[in-house]
Every structure is written in C-alpha cells, then in structure tokens.
Amino acid sequence: MLALWGALLWIGIARWERVLAAPSGAWDHRVAFATWILAIITLCGGSILQERRIHESRTMKGVGQWSLAWMAFRKSHVAVGAAITVMVFYLAALLTPFLAPFDPAVQGSLITERMLAPSLTHPLGTDQFSRDVLSRVLYGARISLTIGFVAVSISMTIGTVLGAVSGFAGGRLDSLIMRFVDMVISFPRLVLLIAIIAFFEPSIFLIVAVIGLTQWPQPTRLVRGEVLSLREREFIQAGKALGLSKTRLVLRHLIPNTMAPVIVAATLGIGDTIVLEAGLSFLGLGVQPPTASWGTMVADGRDNLLGAWWISTFPGLAIVLVVLSFNLAGDGLRDALDPRLRS
Amino acid sequence: MIAFVLRRVLASIPLVLGIATIVFFLLSLAPGDAASLFVSPNITPEVLEQMRRNMGLDQPVHVRYFRWMSAMLRGDFGISFSRNQPVADIIVQILPNTLILSFCAFLLAFTAGILVGVLQAVRQNRLTDSSLSVVGLFFYSMPSFWLALMLILIFSLGARNLWGWPIWFPASGMTSVEYPFMSPVEQLRDRVAHLVLPSVSLALVLAAGIARYMRGSMLEVIRQDYIRTARSKGLSELSVIFKHALRNGLIPVITLFGLYLPFLFSGTVLIETVFAWPGMGRLVVDAIFQRDYPVVMAGTFIFAIMVVVGNLVADVLYALVDPRIRYD
Amino acid sequence: MPLLQVEDLSTYFSTDAGVARAVDGVSFSIEPGETLGIVGESGCGKTVTSLSIMGLIANPPGRIIAGSSIRFRGRELVDLPEKDMRRIRGNRIAMIFQEPMTSLNPVFTIGNQIREALTLHRGIGRSEARRVGIELLREVGIPEPEQRFAEYPHQLSGGMRQRVMIAVALSCEPELLIADEPTTALDVTIQAQILELLADLRGRRGMAVLLITHDLGVVAEVCDRVLVMYAGQIVESGTVDEIFHRARHPYTEGLLESLPKLAAGGRRLHPIEGTVPNPVGWPTGCRFSSRCPYSWDRCEAYVPPLLATEDTNHLSRCWLEDEPERRRTSAGAGSEW
After folding, report:
1. CB-based contact (8 Å) between C88 and chain B?
2. How far is A211 from chain B (nearest CA, A)?
C-alpha cells in the first residue's frame, strides 16, 4: 500500500510538468494537483501509521475499533468494489494527462470532427466544438472529485468543531448554534448557493468555498448528537473527575469518538457535493468554460440531445458511477463502523 | 389540536425572522452597496444618488435592517427591474406553478417510495429486494437534471422522432401552443402530459431515498410483537402489512417529508430550467443572469419559507399519525 | 378425543451457524377444558412450540419438519393451507403474549383491536362488535370499558394492557387459549390478578389453556398437568402433584431447588449450574448431561427415551429410571446439590 502511494507521489512530483499539462483553466488544475499531492502525502502518512499500529497490535492483545471495522468492511464485496472504483477514479483524475487521448479544450475541425458518434478514435464521441468527450470526462473527473473532496473537508471540519462545542457546552451557546443550524437548513442548498454566487464571478475557488461553507449544518447536528450521548458516558465523566481541561476533553476524547459517523457522513457527502456542483455547473453558475466539468458537459449536450446523445449521456454516467460508488462505500462503512450492527 | 398547531406556528416565527436576517446578510455580502444592485446598471450617477436616498441607503445599518425586515414581512420585496413590476406580484403569479410541480413530484415520490419500501421489506433479502435496492441506489445517485435529459431523450424526442411511439410526453413548458384552442378535457390532458416528465425526474431521485428509508422502517416494525399479535388474530397477510405494519412504518417516514423539501426545491430549480417550466426556480436562475437581485433575494426567502411551512405540516402530520405524541 | 394432539413436533431454524433444532420431537395432548403447563428455562423451545401450533413460524428461517403432526379436534394443522389456518387462528385457538407493553399496536385504539377478530371471524357489524367488545373488556375486569374502548394502548398500564390482550384473545370464544409467559413482564401483585382472571375465565368458559412459563410457582397455582421442557425436548411430564412432590428428572429437581417459595425454612437456594446449550449443536446423549450432577458415561453416549415411572402417565427422560440405584449413591456422596 505504502509503495503504491509512494510511487504516485513520485510520479506527481518528478513529472509534475507532465501531470500539470492541462492547457486551459490551468489554475483549476493546479488547485486539483496540489490537493492530490496533499491527499497522497496524507495517505502515505496514514499507511505508515497503520503499519506501525499493526506492528504494535501484534505485541498487544485485543483489536481496536478501526481494525474491527476494517475486517467488517472487507467482508462486504460490494463496498470494497465501490471503494476500488472510487480509487480508480481518483487515480484517473491524477494521471489524466497520461490517459487522455486528446486535449480537452482544443477544438478540432468544425467540419470533419464535429459531433462524431463514438468510434475507435473517439471512444465517447466528440462534442459540438469537436472536442473529445472521453478526454473531457477524464479532465472533468479532476474538477468534480477535487471540489467534492475539498468542500467536504471544509464542511466536516467546521461541522465537527461546531457540533462538539455545541454539544459539550450546552446551554445558551448550544441553542444559539442549533437555531442557526435550523435557519441555514431551511434554505434549499442549491438556491442558497445561487443566491451567494449571484454576487460574484463564478470560479472554482468560489464554488469550493461556498459549497464547503454551506454544508456544515448537517455534520454539526450529527456530531452534536453524538457528543450529547458521549458526554454522559463513563470515560468522559472520568476525564472530568481527573480534572482534564475542557479543550483537552473535547479534542482528545470527544471528537475522536465521534469520528466514525463523521467519516460515513463525509463519504456520502462527497457524492452529494459532486451532484450539487454538477447542478451548479449545469446552470452555468459553477465551473466556467472552457474548463471541463461534468455538469457543464451535460449542459453542452442539451441542444443536440437527439442528434448527439453521447455529449450529455457520458458525463452524466460518470457522475452516476462516482456518486453510486461513494454511496455504496459509505453504506459499507456505516455497516462496518456501527457496532450495533456487528455481531 | 388547534392549540398545538398555533403553538407550532408561533414557534416558527423566530425561524422566519432569522431567515430574513440571513437574506439581509447575504445582500450586504455583495460588493458595492445595495443601490447598485437593486437598480438597472445603465443609469446616471445622479439618479443613482437619488435612488440611494430614496432607498434609505444613507441610513446606518440597524435602520436599514429594520426597514428591510418590515418590508420583507409585509411581502414587499422591491421592484424587479428586468420586468419593471413589483417582485411580490411576479411571485404571486409564478408560485402556483412551482407548487403544482412540487406537489405532484412529492406525491409521486412518496407513493412510489413507500410502496417499493414495503415490498422490499416484505421480501427481505430475496431477489425482489436486492434488485430493487440496486435500482433504487442507482436512481438515488443520479443528478435529477441528467435524469431529466435522459427521460426527454427517450420519452419525448426518441419516442416521437425516432421510434414513433404512440405515447410521448412534451418536454417543455406547462402547456402546448394550441392550449387556448382546446376543449376543457383536452386542456386538462395537455396539462397532465406536460407535468409527467418534470415530476417523474424530480420524484425518482427522492423516491429512491424514501424507499430506502421505508424499507428500514418496515423491517423494524415487522419484527415487533404487535405484528405477531395481529397474525395471531387470524388476519390476512395483506391486512397485517397494510393496516398494522404500514401505519407504524410510516411514522418515521413523515420526518422525511420535512427533510426532503429542501432537496425537492433544489431539484425544482434545475428541473424547471430543463423543462422551461415557468416557476420560482427558473425565475431565480433567470434573474441571476439578468442581475435582478430583488428577485433573487425574494425567491431565496420564499423557498426557505416554504421549507419552514413544510416542516410545520410534517409536525402536524406526525402528531396526527402517532397517538403517543401529545399535543396539549 | 383430545382437543389438541401434538406428535413428534420438530421445528428447525436455519441460521448462519447451522441448523438450530429449537423443538425436537415433542409430543403431548390437551383435553378440552384442561390447563396444561409447559415449563423450562428460556431457550428450551417453549415459545417455538406454541408458535408452531399457531402456524406462526416464519419460513424462512424456520420450518416444521416433515413427520410432525399437530391435530386440533382431529384435524391436521401442519399442512393446512394458510387460508384455512387463518380461520382457526384467533377464532378457535387464540394466543396471548409475554410483553403486554409491546403486543398491542400503538397506533390503533383498544376498541379497533378488539373489534378486528370479531368482525373477521364472527362476521358481525361495527356496532354489534363494539357492544361485544365493551362487554369483553368488562369481563376481563377493566373499569369504565366504554371509555377505555376509545383509548390508545399507551394510555393503559401494563396489567390493563394484558387484560386487553386477554379480551382480544377471548373475543371469539376460543376452545384453546395459548398463554405464553402472560405474567412475566408484570409486577407480582398484578401477576396474581392476571392468573386469577385466567383461572376464572377458564372455569366460566370451559376452554383449555396451554400455559407457558418459566415460573413453577405459576404452574402450581393454575395447571392440571405439567410438561417440563429442556433443550427442545420434553424431559418430564405428569400432574402438578407428581411434578412438585415426586419429581423424577434431575432438571425438574434443579428447577424446584431454585424456587424460593419451596426452599423455605432456611434452606439454601440452589441454582442449576451453567446455561442451556446452543440449539445448533445439542450435546449427544442426554442433553442435560453436561449440567447434571448424576451424569455418568451412559448419559453422554445414549439418548434416554421418556421412561415410565412408578406413577401412571408420569414420564421422565432420564436413565435414572433404568438404574435407580445411581440416584442413591450419587446423592449419598453429598454432592453440591
């Protein structure tokens, strides 16, 4: 595992020029690239920690919560398959320049290459600007997956902290936060996003920030609920009795114990976010052309639905496949992490 | 019961005020001041200054806030400059269209979702159950606007132009061009035909979620002792499931009614755009491209209020269905 | 002719771990108007036996094994079509359950739930069903029955709910009432009231009662005959007098020893060591051998049949009937119990 991550990191750094060889919307791709490198470094670190933990657990008796969950997760073939699909998508997103047969933004001949049906040269056909749909779907994966990942990281962080504070502090602060959550949740997400984006020039940064900053209410509620039930449990009471500081209690004891449902929510949340971003882009309020994004690509095909069905169909299928994988993996995680379901 | 409803209405007033405050906050988020947002961009600076004074923008923040709030609550959302008409009038005209579509989609989603969920629970872990689960999750993972395009491709364009099916559905607007010249029966049929594809594309995604939830809820209920009691009375399986189990299984699903409303309205924005449905969602999207901020803000506010009202209805339904909830 | 004749009843469940033989070759009969008790620890197959009679074993995972026979007034119930079984269920055989708190549907009124069986089996109209229902509630000792009729289960106490359950079960005047731990979930004082009510109703209506319980005290109060079940089998059967005063099977002895009321006079209570084994893999030989103080090599190797004792109709599934001298030597050794 570690070797795989290492190899990817090496490809990313050693051949960054090639990896970054996205001709247009270069900034969007640079953001994506930076995220990948960060994610891979995190994964490397995670693998090392995991190795050490396994090493330790050989000398210690008993199996931790995470190892148990991993064993339960591995049993579900569907969930593992879904997780692998997600990985494959992320890999493809990282290595797009090596995989994509054509430049996603360069327009071909408007006469000979416009709206070609799927063929060997263009497996998914070409669009009305004679661009290769497959290449665009691959580049679109970068955008969608990055936005999903980063936005959910933002919202989960905010939500976890707010939820933990709200549940732990209780009283007025708690009701203040929860009332605010009630208000924000009353806005249909897409409408709220549109209302905010309306004032600015749409860009990938704005999309990520706005999606991330409007999604925190759900994880806040989730974490608060968890914390409320944890707060009365013995080990927190014991920590209080030991005179641990509040910060330490929250950070070291409460939050780690709420992580399981948060991870499940995050996995499912990435799927939702990808759909949401696609919706925004579909309306023309998200990622701006010529950067390829699945939502804009679906919108591109709208006018030639009957004549060139492949332009809208394939990016949509990509969304369905990725979101389905996230949902299946999330379900598998939930089953694996929920001790009540484990026999 | 009436007291209960009244109390719930009163309890949601702070929520409505809070929502209005958030909308006000959103407005002040905007670069530049509100005058430049609320009036047409092609206007002379003198007029702009006059407008600013008229709108009270020279006043301090708290004064503006209270003015804004009282205007909002009176239903005065300003004037749309793209249509040169009070925003409130536009909304009164257009809101029913969105309500019709949403209502049909919700009805369809809950009917289909509940039936499928019950069927899955009754046939737990058999072929029917697992195949419906797969199909359900597939729809659940689908962006509604893409589903809409695919439905148009198959049941409108393809059915009409390629395969010549006897039945195809219109893919745009609420009525056909010939609508004014139709007989009342034909008019009704025309309207229903136009509703089919938009409601189905909205409903399928929701129905998949509802079915998942309903299945879990029914599985929980079917295990209960009172179901065994019902069987021990000699009731048929049909009345055990549809009388004794369904009524209990529905209780948790009612919370979905409130929970799914925001999703529904988010979907409405996209679906109305795809189907050129003259509703609130399309109004808001069009307004953004025309920089018609009063309309955007009013639309956002109205959508949020509809969610609040929907939650209220869900609460009341909950109390009606579950006798254990006391409403005194 | 007996009212109910159960012969060689076996009900198995398929589980992940294997086939659980929850009930394994049980035979008994009930005469009209008789009260038969079935006792045993939880996990012995008492409830599965009663659900098998009602035809309420969910398939899958459960199934009644071929060769089993349940005859009600001479009519075979095991292979009866579901439609015909429904006509018997709740009508001629009725059942009440352990948990009055959860056995009534929370979203329907008491009246609604009483009327159901009446309109279904008796074919009477709504208002007539209401009249009969209120009468039933009065009969089972519920004060202000007219008012209670319109109330929901959560508005009633546990004892009251069990009375309602009894009223529901009695509504079609069944010939056989199966009561599965009817008092276990109730307070002691309420328990006595419910038992009294059951005994009273049986006397008045002349119906037979199959009473399932783990509480020997309850059996002593209301039953005519007793079956003792262990690990899916009947291990001892006899009259109440025989079981309580001349118990033959070591398991029955153990149950009696662990009963506080009979262990008066400063004697220590002796619980039976260990627990009921897993139904997926019953022990070979005598299923009680692993917990039995008398057990010797024969017990572990050979399954004892139900053997006759000195009383007629008093049977015990124990090799001690064959080798009575072992009881003396073992008891003389002064073992812990």
Report:
1. yes
2. 14
